[in-house]
Amino acid sequence: MRAALIALAPALAFALATPAAAAPCGGDFASFLTQMEAEAVAAGTPPDKAAAFFQGVRQDPAVLKADRSQGVFRKTFLDFSQSLISKNRLATARAKSAELDAIFARAEAEYGVSRGVLLAFWAFETDFGQVQGDFNTRNALLTLAHDCRRPELFQPQVLAAAQLHALDEFDLNTTGAWAGEIGMVQMLPKDILERGVDGDGDGLVTLKTSQADALLSGARMLQHHGWRAGEPWLTEVTLPETFDWSLTGLETERPTEDWAALGVTPRAGTLAPGLQASILLPQGRKGPAFVVYPNYRVFFEWNKSFIYVTTAAYFATRIEGADPYAAGNPDPALALDEMMALQEKLAALGHDVGQIDGILGAGTRAAVQKEQVRLGQPADGWPTRQLLDAL
Fold it and tell me: Any idea what the Cα angle at residue 340 is, between residues 337 and 344, rounded to 5°?
């Protein structure tokens, strides 16, 4: 039964890619539920299971509030990483690594994903399974699928959740994060349906209660998104004072040999030979510096936040034995109103910074760097008051 439902996933994705197949966002919620139920049946969910899944659904205003106020990602890298990474959390991660060694060894053998990466996500997402979220997942998904901000993301998740319900792998009282992620490593229903792993052999994929299911499913998802076995993801480095800062940032990739020739030196170990890499300065040239490899970019398939991804990638290296970063002494961060004013100025100059939200994401960093080059300032991608004043 599970294989038959999963086989329908490509057709389901194709159907939802066409506007005529998608349920209209906004409008009457009851009518929306009726149309979504019909789509679930068309996608292969048995009618009785679909009827049960959509019965009693309620919109959740708290979900929409959470979706529009993700202020935690406005923190700097140093503030964010220091708030998430503690001695206790690091010790717990290493203890879990030893306790569940067989599971992590299997994850690496079958999917190529290093244990530090899985432990970092497990720690940050749910504090090793202890805090999995208390939003009703079904209500959250349908609230977001009905909302007009991102229906193309959440409507397929609703249909996947209905299919998981038909497989007895999604209880209607399931709770999780406000955005519909479920379980110890917080995966969306479509990922669970298509890439869930029955790690404990009980015939079900249950990410809320089974450590083996959760960790192996997370590893399989990362592999699906391009994780490269045996390769690093991030290494802390030092840069010469004469370094060309305009070469930093995710938009510039060069072989590690080229970076070494320019004076890029790892604080410990060596740069991975033969790999394309970028130089990352989360808080500019006066803060920590990292070389990031192709695997680093796979982290964005789990979370789109630059600050979260960089912190998770760094924490994964700490779990596996790396030293604490050299914090340096970065220039002060802009206040929220200053960041939003900067984004408005950058957008007016034609840069794509996304939403004017005060969050220093990858798009804003790239725009900052281009303007720093144009104005003859150190082009390290870190917004300063000097740049704001100059614009």
Answer: 135
- Which structure tokens are listed for 350? 């034609």
Q: Which has the closest alpha carbon to 211: 126, 314, 85, 84?
A: 126
| pLDDT single digits (tens) 214-249 | 999 999 999 999 999 999 999 999 999 999 999 999
Domain 234-319 belongs in CATH node 1.10.530.10 = yes
Backbone torsions φ then ψ of 301, nearest 5 degrees: -75, -15
CA distances to 77, 141, 328 from 85, in Å: 12, 30, 18
Average pLDDT over residues 47-55: 97
The mean pLDDT value for 8-32 works out to 63
Residue 381's Cβ-side half-sphere holds a number of Cα atoms within 13 Å equal to 24
206 pLDDT more than 80: yes
Q: Token digits for 316?
A: 């994964």
Q: 47: which 2 tokens? A: 């009618």
Burial class (CB in 10 A: 0-12, 13-18, 19+), 173: exposed
Position 3 confidence tier, pLDDT thresholds 50, 70, 90: low
Beta strands in 17-115 (DSSP E): none
Q: How far is residue 23's CA from residue 19's CA, in Å, rounded to a whole number?
A: 8
Task: Please state, as a whole number, how many other Cβ atoms lie within 10 Å of the Cβ of residue 201.
Answer: 9
Nearest Cα to Cα of residue 371 among 355, 356, 387 = 387
- Between the alpha carbon of residue 277 and those of residues 232, 249, 252, 257, the distances in Å are 11, 10, 8, 10
The candidate with the shortest Cα–Cα distance to 334, out of 256, 387, 274, is 387
136-148 pLDDT tens trace = 999 999 999 999 9
Q: What percent of the chain has pLDDT over 70?
A: 94
Enumerate the CATH 1.10.530.10 domain ranges in the chain, comma separated.
234-319
**Dihedral sign of CA atoms 24, 29, 35, 40 in order:** positive
3-state secondary structure of 206: coil
- Predicted TM-score of the model (pTM): 0.90
Provide the angle, in degrees to the nearest 10, between the axes of the packed helices 211-224 and 115-126. Answer: 110
Q: Nearest-CA neighbor of 391 among 329, 341, 355?
A: 341
Which stretches does DSSP call E strand in the chain?
A: 135-136, 175-176, 234-238, 254-255, 265-266, 276-280, 290-292
